[in-house]
Design a protein that fits this description.
Elements (H helix, E strand, L loop, with lengths): L1 H21 L14 H19 L11 H21 L1 H15 L4 H22 L12
Amino acid sequence: MIDRLVGLICALIGAGAIWHAQTLHVPFAADPVGPRMFPTITGGVLILGGFILMLRPGPVTMEFGTWPRALAVLVASLIYPLLLLPIGFIAATSLLCFVAALAFHARPLPAAASAVATAIVFFVLLDKVLDLPLPRGPLGI
């Protein structure tokens, strides 16, 4: 039952994000993508995920994990914004993804490879496609 409730909450938050994105004022001569795109995409993903949770047959089992694993992800998430400017988006996001993957029992080498790939994909998506400037870090990447 709780999974259905979480799905409903996710869908409602997604609908709220899309609604709020449409209320953003965009100047006429602004970038065609504009500031509405990211919250609209995020809201769409939240709605899709929420409906999948609500409509999935049978109970959804979620593993929260042990406290040290949850604490590791929490600490990494709190340190992440502090590292963005000094070391840049790709390095900071890679570290966050690496810690999160290790917390969920990934092997170190595949965790490192997927963390770097995830950071690069998000960098290209946000910085290049959506034209949202991200911190480059000391190497300028």
